[in-house]
Amino acid sequence: METAEADITGLCQDIFSKMAMYLTGELTATSENYKLLENMNKMTSLKYLEMKDIAVNTSRNLKDLSQKFAALQPYLDQITLTEQQVAGLEQAAYKLDAYSKKLEAKYKKLERQ
């Protein structure tokens, strides 16, 4: 009977030892997963900070460009007005050219008579 008790005690110690190793492995894996998650969260946080900086810089640059465009707007309006005036002068020049050709034709006709 002592041998059976010794066998049972040995088997119990063996199962408890193996169970302890298994649970230690599970806890270690879980701990490593949490460490990995923590590192991923830190990296994500850093990326979001970088993206925030980029967004702030982009916003600042857009504001600067908007101010520069507003400063240039009077000149752009002046260019548009000048372009319209040039187009009007061009039309007047075409009409004047056509009229001078008619006058020239009339003059030549009168000269022949």
Automatic annotation (TrEMBL):
Origin: domain of life: Eukaryota
InterPro entries the record matches: BLOC1_su2
GO molecular function terms listed in the Swiss-Prot or TrEMBL record: gamma-tubulin binding
GO biological process: endosomal transport; lysosome localization
GO CC annotations, alphabetized: BLOC-1 complex; BORC complex; gamma-tubulin complex
Family to which this protein belongs: Belongs to the BLOC1S2 family.
Name the record gives this protein: Biogenesis of lysosome-related organelles complex 1 subunit 2-like
Organism field: Phascolarctos cinereus
